[in-house]
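User: My instructor asked us to take a sequence, write out its structure as tokens, and then describe one feature of it. I'm not sure where to start. Here is the sequence I was given:
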Amino acid sequence: MLGEFLVILFSNPIEFSALAKEMLKWFIGGRTVKNHPVDVVHALYNHPWARPQQSYEPPYDTLPEYAIPTMFSQPNTQMDSKNTYSDLQHYFIARVIDRMESEIRVLLKSPYLRARDTSTNQFSWDTVLDFSVDVVQKIAVSVAPVTWMLLTWIAVGGERAAQLKEMKFRDSGKGRGANHVQDPYLGCAVALMMLLYFHNKGLNKFQSIMGILMFSENSSKSLQSITGRMGLAVANSSTLKRLYSMSAVASERIRTIGANWVNKLVSFHIVYDNINQYHQNWRPSLSSQTSLESGTAATLIMQPGVAPEAFDGFEYEEHWQCVKCEDITLAKIWEDIDRKHLENTDFDDLRHTFAIHPMPLQKTEVIPLETSGFDEATTIGNRQTIWDVVEHQLRIPPHALEGRLIPFSGDQATISHIRTLKCHTSSGSTWFSSNRYILPLIELWHIKFAMLKDIIKVHWPEQTEKGDIGLHFAADKLHQNLNPNKVDFYPAERLVEVVLTAMRLNYIRNMLHQKSLKFPMRQDGKLMHLTEELEAL
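Assistant: Let's start with the prediction itself. The structure tokens for your sequence are:
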């Protein structure tokens, strides 16, 4: 009788009065202050009469077809008597599955999880570089909260979440050992992308990136096959298609830059250096020996804000012919410096007001070019490398090079080979055949490295007089073991920087002593540290 009353009450309110309908509407809508409908369901679910015994948990007689593995059958479970607790639990689970189904439908429409870029409809390096697991987590939290809660509860639960937050709060942020710490939220995001990939093969951006990573690490095909079956990566054939697509997009972008350079819309300079691959033959013979293959890797560096006439070849050659080597001396360069002008000008004024060609401050755009098998250790190898970059990759026609310059940078040996090339081909009838369009520039890093080698060589002579104070003495005091025969750039740079900074601060202290005639001391009578004394002065 009670059940019939409730069914009639909630299923057919047409015959009720207006007041009864309004009260029923407020109750079912959950707008009552007390006795919420959820409270009624909660009371039924937890009532001791709703289940046979307190520790009872209902079995699942029949699993849906999608929950049974391919080679499995329905599990054999005992038939259970019907009760309210079991029926409500089955009902709740069914509604959760309905909610997850609606969330998955929305996730399947997400363009971010697809390998092809929405703007170009291709898979490119921008697709790889723009991918972020954090974005996937934000999408999951906002679009599929129930699905995300189920995954994170399996991985984290309630108690461990507080521990993880406490560990994150105590993290110093220096990144020490961060790569060896398990991140359950990262695992949940990866698991979600794997499951969506099984549901729809089009959602394979993460799997494509993993396939490219394994290809770059020369992973075996058996490993790629295993990860493909697990949904962690795409097949090897799909990875190759992705690589060809990325190469095609990059080549098209490089050709577009070359066309814009022809129309004087962009400016760039090219840096290239050798790459070597050593092949060790563990069983050498007359037909097979250990070998060293040499190639070249080039990079395109964009120069924003450069005027179209900045690299005018005719103007450059005219000025170059007017300058003689004997006119360029250190004394003349030193005399040309206007010291009063520099003293009254700060950096911002110099950059904005007094600069002839002010350059905008922005992130440098670096574009890697195709690698080649040419050996840039020879003059002919440099010519082949430059022609490959200009003709084959940038697709700049020879007639467009007339009267224009393209800066090419490298180490000292590369620049020496380029100058030799220009000298040997100077009789060419065009700028392309004579290589007049090439503007060789030594990279500042290589200049600095050469200067560091000379400095170390001076301060580490074969026979040092006792009592000499220099970088060798400073390195011993700082416990830095430098090898003067094979100079490492960064340790040598730090040593020179520390010594020069200390010398400059010492000179400033002496100047302040002469002006103020003060010699500050500590309260304990000991001499102050250099930085403490400068602060006191």
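For the description part of your assignment, you could build on this observation: Residues 1-35 form one domain. Try explaining in your own words what that tells you about the chain.
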